[in-house]
Specification:
Layout lengths: L2 E5 H8 L5 H10 L3 E7 H8 L3 H5 L5 E6 L10 H12 L8 E2 L8 E5 L9 E7 L6 H16 L8 E7 L7 E6 L5 E2 L8 E2 H7 L19 E5 L5 E4 L3 E2 L12 E7 L2 H15 L8 E8 L5 E4 L5 E5 L1 H8 L5 H10 L3 E4 L5 E5 L9 H12 L19 H15 L3 E2 L5 E2 L1 H4 L25 E2 L4 H9 L8 E12 L7 E12 L5 H14 L10 E5 L5 E11 L2 E9 L1 H6 L6 E7 L5
Parallel strand pairs: 4-15, 5-8, 5-15, 20-23
Antiparallel strand pairs: 1-3, 2-3, 6-14, 6-15, 7-14, 8-11, 9-10, 11-12, 12-13, 15-16, 17-19, 18-19, 21-22, 23-24, 24-28, 25-26, 26-27, 27-28
Keywords: Aminoacyl-tRNA synthetase, ATP-binding, Cytoplasm, Ligase, Magnesium, Metal-binding, Nucleotide-binding, Protein biosynthesis
Subcellular location: Cytoplasm
Subunit structure: Tetramer of two alpha and two beta subunits.
Length: 589
Amino acid sequence: MPTIGVKRDLLFKSLGQQYTDDEFQDLCFAFGLELDEVTTEKQMLTKEQGDVAAAKDASEEIIYRIDIPANRYDLLCLEGLVTGLKVFQGKMKPPQFELSHVPEKERQTMTILPDTAKIRPYAVAAVLRNIEFTQDSYNSFIDLQDKLHQNICRKRTLVAIGTHDLDTLKGPFIYDARKPEDIRFKPLNQTKEMNAVELMEFYSTHAQLKQYLPIIRDSPVYPVIYDSNGVVLSLPPIINGDHSKITINTKNVFIECTATDLTKAKVVLDTIVCMFSSHCAVPFIVEPCNVITTNNETVVYPTLEYRTETISPKKANAYIGVDLESQKLADMLTKMYLEARVEKSGDLSVKIPPTRHDVIHACDIYEDVAIAYGYNNIEKSLPSITQIAKQYPLNKLTEQLREQVAQAGFTEALTFTLCSRDDISTKLNKDIEKTPAVHISNPKTLEFQVVRTTLIPGLLKTLAANKKMPLPLKLFEITDIVVADDEAEVRARNERRLCAVNCNKSAGFEVVHGLLDRVMQLLEVPWKKDEGYYLQATEDPAFFPGRCANILYKNVTIGKIGVLHPTVLHAFELTHPCSVVEFVIEPFV
């Protein structure tokens, strides 16, 4: 959940009303937000950076830090927050965003060249005309871009935003992809011109920008935007050019967004122009741009598209747990920036503005009704259907077995569900290709690459981390593993297993065998070949030859018991013999 910091006095001035901290906190809560902290710039520097020297020169002005829902991109700046709160309080109607009527030939144009498909294929653009910046609104403009970059743009991997002083440039604009050594310009706030190779080296130690370099560093071509005079506007997603940087005196802002996800780019562009068109000479009017795609198709951006959704008042009341008239529901939706009216059919027609890209389903509209009504105002009531709750049978059996296995002298462990590929294959003398594992598509570390298919590696890792403890070490775990299964609905299924390990100076097979017998006794399963359980000798590469057996229940294999192979012990850095029992408990529910 992103957090924005706004100056209290500026916020109250924009809202046209003064509040105490408690009153504003109540207003935020009613609107579905949370006032996280009341602080100052000095306190923030001291707390977050520990920079006492910088904090001495910092302002003592009160700052409200407000938690914003991750999908409410329109509330990530002061302008959007103020507009949303004013509409919620009924102090203003939801603004109507429109495109200016600029003749098509006079619009700014951006042409996307084919080579961009190799690195970053999409681009959108817009112009804010005759904008009036103050220092506070300028800071808010920059801060919104940063918040969007960290949020919906996924740290610039999906979308990168560039804002430029249009009066320093000459259209039409070209979006191309060139070799790094062929791109040369002066980066933002720098005095020296450099090519893209030098730029990458220059910013490799930069505190903020170094994290974005890997996005394009290894590509044979880099994306670049330049005007008709060959002036470079930006090298997305790294940095803009110094030539077209915006200042507090900028009057006309050219906004471009390059992206790997066109939908996200349109959302980002809509959000920026809707928030800051309020500072234009004619508020809420945005000048469109023509973008010529690689298919030679001309597309006009931003779209600023309004759409209408129809919902049933009856369903809205039922889902929320209230009984409100249709007009009351319409009024509450309008408070939430969603203008609504009652149709002749009795249904509600809800207009979704371009600022509310978070509304993608009827349930999102129902949620806004609940927020406007107030969750605390919804009366508590008993369900219309009386039911008696009971514990899920498998979980009940699991809890009962945990107690009994612990009483048998074993200590319970809780290990990670994810593990490395080697943990369930190489270290157990098995082939990963033949192991029915569910693989993580983009693992962040080598330790978490697959979902475990057995509980043994987790317990052996626990033993390895506790080698200094006195012997014997007896551990157990009863939980789920996951195996790939093409016949399952999601092509994978869970299995609840019991696994116990005995580590001692001798193998101690009789210890785990005794535990198995005790568990079966508790489950009232007899030692009988056809109707109960029994052991059948088998070979498994994870176990010592001739020291492994299948556990069968009603002639179906449910697990294994045996002494682990020395190579397995060595792989997990263990020096003492270990015997293991592992079996599925689901058949006994």
